[in-house]
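Continuing from the previous page of notes. For each protein in this section, the sequence appears first, followed by its structure tokens. Read the first protein now.
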Amino acid sequence: MGFFSFFRKKKPKIDFEFKDFAEKVMTEFLENDFLGKAAEAGHKAKAAIKANQHDDAWGLYHEQKSFYMQHANRSGFTARQALTLDASVHEEMANILRLESKHQDALVHVVYWVLAGADRPIKRHQQKLQSYFNRCKFKETTLSDAVKVIHAQTKLPEFNLAKTIVSEWVSRG
């Protein structure tokens, strides 16, 4: 051993127990990283829309919703929290229907999205609701009537509730 040998770094011993544990944790994380998988599905869906592959995008958005629900289940979300997370995808789904000129169907998705976000409204809710509502060209229902109906809802914001609300507007004409 030389005079300056204490400056040399000693190679650390590998703690195989820790290494095995770390690998196990990382593997489990990658298997259960539902938010990461949801984000990946969302990115693929947006790319499919750009490529005009609406059916593929629709399927990918449903895959994203599934991953969100798995995350909500694993994280112990309340029903309202889970529905809010689920509804966040419906803004994009409404866009696909808009591109296909299925305006009434698109409005259902927007209404669901707005209902689910009612406890934390954002400016975009009002803007999208107005745009999608106007595309439907209802004669017997005004936008202010629609907004009142939406704000009066106290039930859990389920998709079927949005469907029922829009069906009523459609039946009026």
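Done with the first. The second protein uses the same format. Note its length before scrolling.
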Amino acid sequence: MRYFIYFFLLLSMSAHAGNFFPPEYKTFPFNEGDLLVSKRQDGMFSVNKILKVDRFDIRKGSAINIQGQRFVATEDDFLLIVSAAYGESEFKSFEDASAAAKEGKWKMKVGHAPNRTTGAAAGQTLVGHSPVKETELDGYRQWRQAFERGEAGVF
């Protein structure tokens, strides 16, 4: 019975999805706590961590700031916003970055950045998992409060 209710809830959530946001803004291949490695423009590798994946329902007529532009929803819809911590470009190889992620030996450069799913997933490779600690969510909490007041946006 529990699974039936869960299935029905998921089905009804997707039935209420509109077309204001593109479909790729509504799915994300990683989970909270996932450790990812990406290659940076300087050729070095970094470790990044997914802190939160939130679904935000945006009502018709509501505004959202995406990459510095204000968009007003033409219909009810939702998108996922991915909050992540980004590491320094400090590793010469993917293997070194992967090992550092698993050992918890990487340097954080940005403690929190809110992204659309497409930007948060681009160029990322899953290498491990580490539960998100409450202390890692300080920047997220500040952003979330500002976002809900309409004072912050998404990259």
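What the second structure shows: The first strand starts at residue 34 and ends at 39. The radius of gyration is 17 Å. We return to this in next week's lecture.
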